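Record type: monomer structure entry
Structure origin: computed from sequence
Chain ID: A
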Amino acid sequence: MKLNRNSKIFINYFLGPLLFIWLSWSIYREIKSQPDIQSAWNEIRSALGSSQSWKLAAVVLLMIVNWSVEAIKWKISVSSVQRVSFFKALKAVLSGVSFSVSTPNRVGEYLGRVLYMDDGNRLRTISLTIVGSISQLIITILMGVIGIIVLRQQIESSNLISGIWIRVLIYGTLAVLAVLTLFYFRLSWLIKWVDRLPGSNRFVYLVKALEGFDATLLLKLLSLSLLRFLVFMVQYYLLFDLFGVELAWWQVFWSVSVSFLVMAVIPTFAIAELGLRGRVALSLVGLFSSNEIGIIFTTAGIWFINLVIPAIAGSLLILSIKKVYNTDNKAGDSKTN
């Protein structure tokens, strides 16, 4: 996947700035369209002016921790193909976020990440990146289905969903989790299946790197995914507390876990998911609190801090990929000489 000169110029001088401008405009329109924005803004100003405002700073710091853990995950995942530094992995992850905001369920993040890989390695790292995403999805589904079981009585009593459909949802989710987990720990099956396809010699190299994923490495990725999940929970707990949504820790943990599961199965664009996140949060967190403004602003705050800020940073980092390409070209020239 070697990029020619025109492709590099397109990425450096057109795509990066265009992505930044479009992202900023889309964010402005999405936030402006939210209902009761003025009263909510007054509420947030009051909260930020209180002695509890340190919690917002803590959430921002946890955002850095969150994406740093994801960078470590990606660094570990691609190590069998190419060794990258932590900071290069972090830049790749942030650039991936900027691409993901305009694709369903953020699948565009793979494009942003592979741009930081050397020529010849970019396509090979896509399958490795997907494995890291599967590890996060397994944790999301696992915690979500446990959350449904824990909150089953509250969900039924609020008539969000009938008892029969809750059972169908639980058993169906557990079945999906079992299949996904089995596939995750048996990646060798995928390689063997691809190997048997007619003409597979042309593209089997794209999944051959998966052979380097042993059980220890896969468990490490799952552990890092769980750590990210816990960071999200702490962020939600801090912002709920800051905006006056009085909840016990277990109510935050399980209601947000179920909302994560819902968001994972509904196809949506990241830049347009704020409204959907708000509605899901109001339905689930609203089981325990009537502070709708606090719930909405916590959801919007997490969305802005964890997604929008990294996406903007990533779109700016795309402008610096030229340096990466120049380094790659110099290395290639030296090998040729």
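Annotation 1: Residues 322-328, 330-337 have pLDDT under 50 and may be disordered.
Annotation 2: The longest helix spans residues 5-32.
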